Amino acid sequence: MKGNVHMKNPPNLVKFRLNGVPLDALDQKRMRRLRRTSDRMGVPIPDLISEIFGQMIDVWIAEAELPNKIVKFPASVRACGE
User: Fold this and answer.
1) pTM of this prediction?
2) Which DSSP state fits 67?
3) Fewest beta carbons within 10 Å, which of 9, 38, 48, 78?
């Protein structure tokens, strides 16, 4: 069984969470960037992560609503300039 074999996590392994946010998907580079941003803005990392998630969700909602906001004009019978 080679190839796409996934190892099962031991039952005593617990994913690292910060105020309920799982951080196992964040690599070290992103964690350092979060820390620098947190220090620069004076905002705790969990609050910063929550703000980022909120902004991402707002963008997704706006993109999902975009087709409903496009006004479709009827095609004219004559071409312009004729």
Assistant:
1) 0.55
2) H
3) 78
